[in-house]
Amino acid sequence: YLMGKLLATILAMLLGFIGTMVLSHIPITVMANKDQQIERSINMTAFESNNKNAVEVDDIRFETIVPEGSYRLPKYGDGEETPIQFGVRITNQTSTPYRFELPLFVPEILNPHGNPLHMNFARNATWAVNELDIPLIMPGESFKYLMDAKFIWYSKNCIELTGYILYGGVFNFYNFKPGKYQIHFKYKNTLAKKNPFMEVRGDTEIDSFWTGIVVTPFTRLLLR
Description:
It is built from two helices and 16 strands. The protein is of the alpha+beta class. Strands 1-2-4-9-10-11-7 form a seven-stranded antiparallel β-sheet, with no helix packed on it. Strands 3, 6, 12, 15 and 16 form a five-stranded mixed β-sheet that branches. The radius of gyration is 26 Å and the shape is globular.
């Protein structure tokens, strides 16, 4: 028994010595990269805890905003509608001016059970691009974009949410009832230069568009 215990102690000391030698020969660059990853994770956690409705991509901050937060659904039978606004706040924290194409922000809604609602999309017209559709956000500036929509009765048993996206496209979500919903936005742009048909200037090339993909955090939408 004593001999086995002595051998186990010697083996543990030998393994510890080998581990120390291996650690001392790890390249400094590898350890530095690991430390940077840990630091980025800490910063991301701290940022999200300060504002759970916002996310940063390439030093640009995107925040989901619902100004009212709570809305009363329309009553059935009298043609009543409930207007609603929701959207995003974009803050340019870089040193470069960037342009954003606001109609490309597409909403996604979760029902009170956390399941995504199906969105129908149709286009019955195409709008020309307005200057306000593609704002240039300077370094340090923040821009708020609010989308207008409304709750209406689609049928006797169904309340519909409808609004406009993508230059005249119409979106529809269905089957709303009182409860706690969630909403966020998805945005994707792959071109830094575009040739949109402008209302005033006609067909012209415009640059400085931010390229990337962003999904803003969900924020609560209370219906009563």
